[in-house]
Structure prediction request, 311 residues.
Amino acid sequence: MKSIEDAVRLRYLNIRSDRSRAILKIQHVLIGALREFLAARGFCQVLAPVVGPVTDPGIRGAGIAHFDFYGTSYTIMSSMILYKQMALGAFESVFSLSPNVRLEEASTVDTGRHLAEFYQLDLESARKSCQEMMDLGDGLVCHCIEAVRECSQELDILGRDLPSFSPPFKRIAHRTLEEELSIQGEIPFEKEHDLSRASSEPFWVYDYPVGSRGFYYIERDGTLKSMDLIMPEGFGEVVSGGEREYRYEQVKALLDREGVAHEYSWYLDMLKAGIPPSAGFGLGVERFTRYLCGLDHIWESSPFPKVPGIP
Ligand code: ASP
Ligand code: MG
Prediction:
């Protein structure tokens, strides 16, 4: 912890190292590859909001940052979920590179994969299913790995030997893990780490228990249509996503039950006007950079790192 604190404080010095330059160069190539892959598949890039009256509450207990916006309490986006659904009013498929803030527990600094400020590739497609989004994710991840493989000098500096994968990645229903891991809802970070370490390939976990995740995932056949992509070698989750609950009545009932419907008034107005059913996911850019570069800790994959618990 102390060494991470020092490294972050001295970022203006260590950003000058060959190692840091190699990581940031790979990140630059990664961002180009993400855009190239999605643009070739008809996704339009939209500019992400940074602030708004509400944001994604489904962030595994992390805190949301609030500030005063002309006398009203506003939030800093924790993900772009609510707005990417709005953007489907303009385009069939959208994506954004979105800066997000999540006030993670200070202890998550030890997972090696949590930042308090990070960039998320947020994408969404109208009339698509979880299965189709997992297919897209398979292709996207492999495309980026191949693009980064071209950075041989940088990978050499980092001592990273990038594996090759042949999609589709394995898809594991959450319920099949429940007994094995004795879990009910979200997979605890340590158990996810063990699963990730035991695997030599990326794999999806899909169909989460009802009530375990954000209100915007649709419930069907007794499960939430949500999925995560877990990278191997202990790097853990890099993607979360799913199919959306897009019907006004259902969302209103869920938010009423939580007593927060009034906070989501613009969102509920939008749903009342009608939006298409959709599916999508968010990919943590620094997490994926960490995997591509083979880094012990995620702080190195951010040019200007903010890590949990260290102001
Ligand atoms: N909003 C989710 C997250 O940030 C991702 C998604 O469902 O698209 O984890
Ligand atoms: Mg997630």
About this structure: The pocket of magnesium ion (ligand 2) is lined by residues 228, 237, 240 (CB under 6 Å). The longest strand covers residues 117-126.
